[in-house]
Amino acid sequence: MFIGDLRIHADANTLIEAVASRWVDIANEAISTRGKFHVALSGGSTPRTLYNLLALPKFAEHIPWDRVHVYFGDERTVPPDHNDSNFRMAKEALLDRVAIPLAHIHRIKGELEDPHDAADVYTRELTTNLPLSAQGVAQFDLLLLGVGTDGHIASLFPATPVLHERARLVEAVRVEKLDCWRITVTLPVIDHARHVLILISGDAKAPIIRDVFATRRTPPFPVQLINPQGVLEWHLDQAAAALLPEELRS
Ligand code: 6PG
Question: What pTM, to 2 d.p., does this model score?
Answer without folding.
Answer: 0.97
